[in-house]
Design brief:
The chain is an alpha+beta fold. It contains 21 helices and ten strands. Strand 1 and strand 2 form a beta hairpin. Helix 6 packs antiparallel against helix 7, helix 10 runs parallel beside helix 13 and helix 12 crosses helix 18. It is globular, with a radius of gyration of 28 Å.
């Protein structure tokens, strides 16, 4: 991978960059102005609140050690639920997340705090509009800087056309669009920008070894590790950037370079230590220990990484929600063919990165749109993607037409995903199933019954034919499923049915209030058993299908299993303290499809 000897004309990539800036600004200002919202709908919630909490705890509430102010965050006007740390044996409260993001938020927090203090309208509580606004649009500025440097780097190696294609691919065709705008304060946006600048600095440093490049490199790597400790992996591509020849030769030559610049190397790691010692001193101050594992029982499954699920699951699969990144993976072939050393270096890094990413036990990373933890690798994946487009442009019109068609479809699909996960409301990762996504993908509207496919993969769309009523039970008084009655056996059928293909379990249900927590919703279950062993089971959660304050008729259709069974159990189940559901009637019948 060699630097261009002449600077390419860059009008197209400049237009693409400005277009992305405008698009992202419009998303933040008008499409999803999250900074205007309060409580759990605002900017500073969930993981972001955990990253951020160092700042108000230190500068507003002056209680970084015990968090005695935590209960006040759950009350008006703040109204957020907090679960971002753990109380230690000595009573101190350790924030779960390391403090790297808080340091990067600090400039925006300082402006917001000054704004709130000067305003008669907004409270200086760390969560009023100035804080939401500054963190939201400060993070958008971070995204602009990242894309600006990505373009600068790509133009050093590739043509203006290739650079434009890569910018549009990453900026619109992946989940980066969502995490640079709507979820901009998440770690991934900041790390993406961090790595774009790091690549630029590495190019400069290894061409002309100077402290003016080395020091900011060390600071950025230190911040990356302080943000997510596993980001220490970035040392591999950054420290060996620009190697030439075979992979082994390139590594040996770079190690020789470091032996001639030992002082630089020591200085680099000294800066890393100083930056990351901030976290060590925080833990020491709170607990008396230099190291605290703050994630409790969360951790890694190193021996059984969730690679397939992480890549292809409809819950949050990376290549499902950012399919254009397939071009990047394919691009490693022409990349390695043209530049074996750098191609193998980045491939090694990406494989290690994916291994770590998909080894995390909570591999779906909360409610993310696609594998959000992959986003910070995009600056490096931009290079094989560029080689892919470069190789396609050298081919005939058939290959170009096919890739162009896929390119357009993937951009459209990415925008559809982004909309449906937010204002469209049709995708709520990680609850999306294969059956649900397959039916709805590309559609802009859905029927309420489509929501059943979030739990079951079976759906009957025709009219029942030759139906046989197996049970029809009215309840007087009605039965309420609540935190006291968790499991209710509505009916048990002993008949082995051979002349029907489908079973419908229906009920007349009433609920006063909606249960918003998915796993707490009342379930309708059909369970085929043989000697009390489950042969086949299907269920649906009913609250997402109901109108509240009135009676609803809800049903689930299930195919009879091919295996032997001796009983069919028709049940209602509620887990936890979810909102109650009242059962007024149940009915069961078997039927066939109309020929």
């Amino acid at each position: 991978m060699r630097l261009n000897t002449t600077i390419p004309k860059n009008n197209k990539s400049k237009i693409a960059l400005v277009f992305l800036f405008v698009l992202m600004t419009l998303v933040c200002l008008f499409y999803y102005p999250k900074w205007e919202k309060n409580g759990m709908s605002g900017v500073i919630t969930y993981d972001i609140a955990g990253y951020y909490m160092y700042l108000p705890a230190t500068f507003i509430y002056h209680d970084l050690k015990y968090f005695s102010f935590e209960d006040s965050l759950k009350k008006p006007p703040i109204n957020i639920e907090t679960n971002m740390g753990r109380v230690q044996e000595n009573g101190s409260y350790v924030i779960q997340y390391t403090c790297g993001m808080a340091l990067q938020y600090l400039p925006f927090f300082a402006v917001a705090n000054a704004w709130a203090k000067a305003s008669p309208t907004y409270k200086t509580n760390g969560f009023s509009l100035p804080y939401q606004f500054m963190l939201y649009f400060g993070s958008l500025l971070i995204a602009f800087i990242g894309l600006y440097y990505l373009r600068k780097v790509l133009l050093l190696y590739f043509s203006d056309t290739i650079t434009t294609l890569v910018l549009i691919s990453l900026g619109i065709g992946t989940n980066y669009l969502v995490y640079a705008t709507i979820n901009g304060p998440m770690t991934h946006n900041y790390l993406f920008t961090n790595y774009c600048i790091l690549i630029w600095l590495a190019i400069k440093y290894f061409k002309t070894p100077r402290y003016r490049y080395l020091i900011p490199m060390a600071i950025l790597v230190g911040l990356a590790i302080l943000t997510r400790p596993t980001e220490a992996l970035v040392l591999l591509p950054i420290m060996f950037w620009g190697i030439q020849g075979t992979f082994i030769e390139g590594i040996k030559n770079r190690l020789q370079f470091f032996t001639h610049h030992k002082v630089h190397l020591l200085f680099f790691f000294a800066i890393l230590f100083v930056i990351n010692s901030i976290q060590l001193f925080y833990w020491k101050y709170l607990t008396g220990n230099w190291f605290v594992y703050s994630y409790g029982d969360q951790g890694f499954d190193w021996l059984s990484p969730y690679v397939y699920k992480g890549l292809f699951s409809t819950q949050v699969g990376w290549l499902v929600y950012s399919p254009i990144m397939i071009f990047s993976l394919i691009g490693f072939r022409p990349f390695i063919k043209q530049d074996r050393a750098m191609g193998m270096l980045l491939l090694t890094y990406i494989l290690l990165f994916m291994y770590v990413c998909f080894s995390w036990k909570i591999w779906w990373y909360g409610g993310s749109l696609g594998q959000r933890a992959m986003i910070q690798s995009y600056p490096f994946l931009a290079f094989p993607m560029a080689y892919f487009y470069q190789s396609i442009l050298k081919r005939g019109w058939i290959a170009k037409t096919m890739v162009t068609g896929l390119f357009i479809v993937m951009l459209y699909l990415s925008l559809w995903y982004a909309h449906m996960a937010h204002r469209g409301g049709m995708l709520v990762p990680p609850t999306v199933t294969t059956a649900y996504l397959t039916k709805l993908i590309g559609r802009w509207h859905r029927e309420k019954n489509d929501l059943k496919l979030l739990e079951t993969n079976e759906e009957f769309l025709d009219k029942p034919y030759n139906a046989e009523l197996l049970c029809n039970q009215f309840y007087d008084p009605p039965v309420e499923i609540n935190s006291n009655i968790h499991l209710f056996e509505a009916a048990t059928i002993d008949t082995f049915i051979t002349d029907k293909k489908w079973l419908r379990f229906g009920a007349k249900l009433f609920a006063k209030d909606k249960e918003w927590t998915n796993w707490k919703e009342t379930q309708m279950i059909v369970n085929f058993t043989d000697n009390d062993r489950s042969v086949k089971s299907r269920f649906i959660r009913v609250h997402k299908l109901m109108d509240f304050g009135i009676d609803n008729e809800i049903f689930i259709d299930v195919k009879f299993p091919n295996k032997k069974y001796d009983k069919i159990h028709l049940q209602f189940l509620q887990i936890g303290d979810g909102k109650p559901t009242t059962i007024k009637q149940v009915y069961v019948y078997a039927y066939n499809e109309e020929n």
